[in-house]
Amino acid sequence: MRLNQLDRHQVKAVAVGNTIGTVRFSVPDPTGLTNWITDDEDGIIVQATSLDSDSTPCFKNHLSFLKIDVEGG
Length: 73
What we know:
Blueprint: E1 15-16, E2 21-25, E3 44-49, H1 57-62
Parallel strand pairs: 1-3
Antiparallel strand pairs: 2-3
C-alpha cells in the first residue's frame, strides 16, 4: 500500500466468515502459502468478522476494493 502511495486506504487483516469473534488458524508452513482454520491448540488465534457486521462508515460508504483468498475453500 505504501509503495503505491495508497495513503487513504485501510488494510484489515482479519478472517471473514459468518460469525464474529476469533478463529484459530494452522501454524503457517515454511513457505507461508497455506494455512487453514483448525482446532489444533498450536494454531494462531485470529480476529474474525462478517461482512455484514462491519458497519463503519469507511467500510459501508467507501469500499472500493475487497480481496478475499478462498483457496481450498
